Amino acid sequence: MFSYAVKKVLLAIPLLLGVSVLVFMMMHLIPGDPARIIAGPEAFPEDVEALRVQLGLDKPLPVQYWIFLSHAVHGDFGRSIRSTRLVSAEIKSRFPATVELAVVATAVSLVIGLISGIIAATKQNSFFDTASMGVALLGISIPGFWLGLMLMLVFSYYLHLLPPSGRGGGLLTLAGWRYIALPALSLGVSSAASIARMTRSSMLEVLRQDYVRTARAKGLAERVVVYTHALKNAMIPVVTLTGLHLGFLLGGAVITEQVFAWPGLGTLVVNAIWSRDFPIVQGVVMLFATTFTVINLLVDLTYALFDPRVRYE
Amino acid sequence: MKRASKKGALVLLTALTIVALLLTSGCGGGKTASGGSGGTLTIANVTDIVQLDPIDIGDAPSSFVASQIYDALVKRDKDGNLIPGLATKWTPSPDGLTWRFELRKNVKFTDGEPFNANVVKWHIDRIQAKDSVPRFKKQFAVIKEVKVIDNYTVDFVLTQPNAAFIEYTLMTNAGMIPSPKAYKEKGKNFAFEPVGTGAYKFVKWTPGQKVELVRNDQYWGGKPGLDGIVFRNIPEAATQIVELETGGVNYISKLTQEDIARLSKNPKIQVYNVGAYNVRYLSINTSDPILSDVKVREAMAHALDFKSIVDKMLKGLVSPGDAIVPNTSWAHPAKVQGWEYSLDKAKALLDAAGWKVGPDGIRTKDGKKLEITIHSPNGRYIMDKEICEVVQQELLKVGMKVNVKVLEWGAFLADVQGKKYQMAFLGWAQSSPEPSLFLDALVMTGGRGNYTSYGNKAVDDLLKQAIVTTDQAKRKDLYGQAMTLMDKDIPYIYIYNENKVVAMAANVQGYVHSPAMNNFVPLWVKK
């Protein structure tokens, strides 16, 4: 298992290198002169030229990439072009908010998704099954920003129960929970829908297997059959799916962040793309790629916990 | 029945969890508790600030925040006139080359550092230093030297006479003066822990979230009314409105036409609306083979009834455009060109230019179709794309085929500034009513915002004369002549001037709405 993990980590290096080339090229090949965009359309051309030289944008692309890469391997992504703050500082000030939202949203989606998925599977073709899967379909189809606005309308505008936007003081404070409730719910619901559907189909498959029948035949209580024997095996695709969701959420949920004015990485990177703030985009995308790789590795390793037949060479 | 209740139970459980969360938390919410009688102004900004070193501020939110923390030598009143700031008086020498500024005494930065002539010189020298940030360098190049005459008198020596020298330098973001002591102590960090002489002191910036300021009790202009100001970063217009109506903020500035109509009916909200210092127009590339013919440009001007288009689509958000300077400027001419809306005239002009209607309704000349492409940004200006689509329909009526090319802002700028376009929806905004900031940039041959390839020596001469003329009435006359000449050549067709719209909680007292930067000193919040 250890050597498997090491192999996976080593494989991640060329992957991340590839990502770095892609990101670097993409930001430089899309149309639009960064010096011009940063200086603003009303700026004097002389000032724009001076800015270009100051930012090193007058150097050839390969040289710019080399400068970027040689610093990046030391974890130094340079300074933001617009604010001159260190990219690492910009990311550090946003990452906690993103992690917080991703984790709570995932928890919400797991609770709702697992419960309704399991009940739907065990009571297949019942009213609850049809209803919950119908709701799940709705959950997948509803656009996140619309759901967000509706939640805001109900809980903030009409009921005055929760603050409409912003972030409280983290999850150790009650204010923190009040602020995170709406964004986490609106993000969690759409993930919950796909998790519920995945749990249901996976459970149905497992419940038909021989070992489940054996378990029932030897007289185990239905509850034990479902939760101890069947569920564990049915979890593998669900874990994969949850890992994917978590990975996406850690990349910053741009639209939800915008709607709820949540100060996460998504807003940061979108603004950076618009203003062609290369160092920020490069730093954040590299971070996304790294977290995604790590989560995938963790998901792979988790399989063994659920299915004893899985072994790592 | 049983199954249904199980589903109900799940919903109930979720709802209960949420309610429990709410009950346990007491109040809280977005509002900052205010101890004093002044209250807090909480402003919603669409984007976060970037940094707060005045000589490198290029974005509106940072400028907005900075203008509460710092002062400049000169300020602007609500009508756009220049009034004393950190300088009490200024006079140009007869040759217009030296401007003497008398400085306000007994002013201190909030770190205790005194304000005096040496500070002014240090600040201007810093902008002009070789290795400084280049953002405002070109504009400040008009200043040859700053001479300290005594502790409270400085002379600005110019390279050439310039009637608008104050507007080009002191009234820009870089005109705001920071504390030299704090700057020297903090180095690069100064941009994030600014110290000025302004009415409010910087307290804290939480990136992506908010900037908090607190009242400066030692402010030279009298004790400010508010306890503090909070600038919150709320990107979404719909969210800003919910925040305003639920009391999370009490100042928003991102509103749609429907919002204005609805909020105006709310007794707890006050909507303020006034013209601003900007112009929006169709920029025509006059070096284009089709559009180089002034008859074609005139035909378009007659075929496009922007006044009624804008009235229909954007009433209350904009005022129809009629000149290259905004109607809020003192130089806005009493009599503007104004092309009569007449499809017949447009058709006659196109006929005269040799463009004959073909079998498909599109005009042709020498086997070429009368077809042009219009570049449009996507949401940079209010309803830009939609208006370009109306232009497309309207010009079809006179036999012109128009393609609309909607581009992301960066790509759009690259095309327009590279003159790889025929016609574009463009805008120009300043924080000042000074006409040369519009005309010298947009109309003068090779002006920095002139992407039309247009140039006219007679117009250039008038503009060059106007900038060295000190008398404002004479300047207005010269600019009027220049605009009349230029409008005959039609490098621009005017669309609208965007208004500055603000919605505030009705209990915020003392606010005066103006196109100039807001003065929040007299404000307070009624309990």
Topology record:
The complex is a heterodimer of chains A (313) and B (527).
Chain A (H helix, E strand, L loop, with lengths): L1 H28 L4 H6 L5 H10 L6 H12 L14 H36 L4 H15 L2 H15 L15 H34 L2 H8 L4 H29 L3 H6 L5 H10 L3 H29 L7
Helix pairs in contact in A: 1-13, 5-6, 5-8, 5-10, 5-13, 6-8, 7-8, 8-10, 9-10, 10-13, 12-13
Chain B lengths: L1 H23 L15 E6 L14 H10 L4 E3 L5 E3 L2 E6 L5 E6 L13 H12 L8 H4 L2 E8 L2 E6 L6 H4 L11 H7 L13 E7 L3 E6 L12 E6 L3 H10 L4 E2 L4 H8 L4 E7 L2 E7 L9 H10 L2 H9 L3 E3 L22 H10 L3 E2 L5 E3 L2 E2 L1 E7 L6 H13 L4 E7 L1 H9 L5 E7 L6 H7 L14 H11 L4 H18 L2 E14 L2 E2 L14 E2 L2
Parallel strand pairs in B: 1-10, 18-19, 18-20
Antiparallel strand pairs in B: 2-3, 4-5, 5-7, 6-7, 8-9, 9-10, 11-21, 12-21, 13-20, 13-21, 14-21, 15-16, 16-17, 22-23
Describe the structure.
The complex is a heterodimer of chains A (313) and B (527). Chain A has 313 residues and is mainly α. Chain A has helices at 2-29, 34-39, 45-54, 61-72, 87-122, 127-141, 144-158, 174-207, 210-217, 222-250, 254-259, 265-274, 278-306. Chain A has two domains: 2-72, no CATH class; 91-306, MetI-like (MetI-like fold, Orthogonal Bundle), CATH 1.10.3720. Chain A contains 13 helices and no strands. Chain A is globular, with a radius of gyration of 24 Å. The termini of chain A are close together. Chain B is α+β, with helices and mostly antiparallel strands. Chain B has three domains: 6-25 and 53-180, Dipeptide-binding Protein, Domain 1 (Dipeptide-binding Protein, domain 1), CATH 3.90.76; 31-46 and 199-275 and 500-527, D-Maltodextrin-Binding Protein, domain 2 (3-Layer(aba) Sandwich), CATH 3.40.190.10; 278-498, Dipeptide-binding Protein, domain 3 (Roll), CATH 3.10.105.10. Chain B has 16 helices and 23 strands. Chain B has helices spanning 2-24, 60-69, 117-128, 137-140, 165-168, 180-186, 237-246, 257-264, 294-303, 306-314, 343-352, 384-396, 409-417, 436-442, 457-467, 472-489, and strands at residues 40-45, 74-76, 82-84, 87-92, 98-103, 143-150, 153-158, 200-206, 210-215, 228-233, 251-252, 269-275, 278-284, 318-320, 356-357, 363-365, 368-369, 371-377, 401-407, 423-429, 492-505, 508-509, 524-525. In chain B, a hairpin with a 2-residue loop joins strand 16 (363-365) and strand 17 (368-369). In chain B, helix 9 (294-303) packs antiparallel against helix 11 (343-352) and helix 15 (457-467) packs antiparallel against helix 16. The longest helix of chain B has 23 residues, at 2-24. Mean pLDDT of chain B is 90; it is low at 1-8 and 16-36. The interface between A and B is large, with 70 and 64 residues.
